[in-house]
Amino acid sequence: MKTLKIVSRKSPLARIQALLVAKKITQAFPKLEIKHIYKNTLGDEDLTTPLNEMPDIGVFTSDIRTDLLNGVADIAVHSWKDLPVDLEGGTEILGTIDRADMRDMIFLKKDSIGKENLNILSSSPRREKNLSGFLPSALPFQTQINFKDVRGNIHTRLTKLLEGTEDGLVVAKAAIDRFLQNRTSEFEQERLSLLEMQKDLKWMVLPLSQNPCAAAQGALAIEARQEDEEVKEIISTITNTEIFKSVEVERTILKSHGGGCHQKIGVSHEILETTELLTVRGETEEGEDLSERLLKSNDDNYFDSINSANYFPSNKSEQKFFKRVPITDSEIVLKGTKNKGIYISRSNAIEGPGLIDDSNIIWTSGIDTWKSMATKGYWVNGTSDSLGENNSPEVSLFQDIDWLKLTHKDNRDEEKEVIATYELKALDISERLLSCDYFYWMSASSFELAIKKYPEIKKRNHACGLGKTFKSIQRTIPQVTPFLDFDSWLEAINNKIK
What is this structure's pTM? Predict the structure, then answer.
C-alpha cells in the first residue's frame, strides 16, 4: 500500500483527531502517503434536534462508515463515544491511540455567579442526571440548576453561551484540550478563539467520581473493513492496547443497560499507576439509580483475619493524633498570592473566606475538601478525586501555572512550593493500636507517629488511599493495600464481619 485514505467528519475537532491518528501512522510508516477525506454527517446537518431525540447515536458515524464499505476510504477516525455499542457487519473497530482526558468541564459566565437559578446548556441526559446532584454542593453559592439542550461544535456552543441568556455550558474536556494543544497554523484561529472566549468565563473540571464520562469519551476509534488485512497490520502497530481494553469495559457496561445517547448513565474505567478504577453512576431506563465506584483489588484475602475489635481506626476521629495550630502569618502570604495554582490537601488547611485571590486556580485533594471550600465561598476548579496529586490529569488549561500547596509546616513537597498554614502538635496515641492487626492511615504523618511509638505494629496489615500517603508509607512498608478512602475500607470490613 502506497496511500492510506482516512475519512472523518468535516468539523475542526474531527479533523484534528484524524490528524492525530495520521501522525501516529506516519511515525510508524514514514513512506506511507496519507490522504484525508472529510464529510458532513446527518448529525452535522441537523443542528436543531436534541441528540437524545435522534433515531440513533450513529448519526455522526453511519455516513462515514459507508465510505469504508464502498472503498472510498481505508480507515475512519471517530470520537469513539459517537459509535453505536453494536456495529453492523462489514467493518470493525481495530484500534485506538492515547486517550485524552475523560472528564467533562463546565463554563459559567462570571456575571452569573451568585444567581438563584442557573440555566446550563447541555446535550446529555447523563450530565443532567449526575450534575443535578453534584453542582449545588460544588458551587460557592446556593442555586437551582436547570438544563437546556444545545447543539453545534465547541466554538458554536461557547458562542451561544456568551451571546445568549443562559448561564453555563458543559462540554467534554477532551475537545477543549485538543484545540489548545494543537499549535498548527491550520487551527490557530480556533485555539486563539477559545483562549479569548474563556476570559469572560469561570471553569470547573468535573470529577469522575460524581460525573463519570460517556462510555469511550476522549478516546478515538479507528474503524476499517473486516477483510482488509494490510490495514489491520498498520492499525495494530499504533494501537494503545491498554486504552482499547479500558474503552471496551465501558462500552460493555453501557450496552448491558441498553446503550445509546439517551441513557442517563456515565461509566469511567480509569487506569491508575498501580490498579484500575471503575465508576458507574446514573439512572437506568427503568428508573433504577446506579452508584458504584470500585478499585480493583490486588489481594482478595486481605481481610481474612479481621474481626470486630482488631482494626484501627473504627471511625475518623479515633485517628486524631495531632492538634492543628494555625500559622497566622500565612494569611498575609496567601492574600498576596496571585495567578497561581493552589493545591489544597485538607479542608482545614484554610479556615475562613476571602483568603485566596480570584486570579488563582484552586484544586483540592478530594470531594469533601472541594465541598468544604465551596461553603467558605471559594470557586474550586477541580479535584484529584482522592487518587493522589500525581494521578490527576493535567489541569493547566488556559495558561502555564506555577503550583503552590497549602499544608502543614513539616510537609516537604518535592514538586510544589509549600505555604504552611498550620503546624501539627502531637497528641497521645491510644494503646489500642497494639491489639489491632489492620490499620488505615489518613496521612503519612499519622503513620510515622504511630510506628515511632509502637514499632511492633509495622509488620501488621496496613492500608491507605492512593497518592503521596501511599508512596510515603510504602517506603517503610512495601506491602500497603490501597483503598479509595477510609469509608470504602470500613465498608469492606463491615461486609466481611457480618
Answer: 0.91
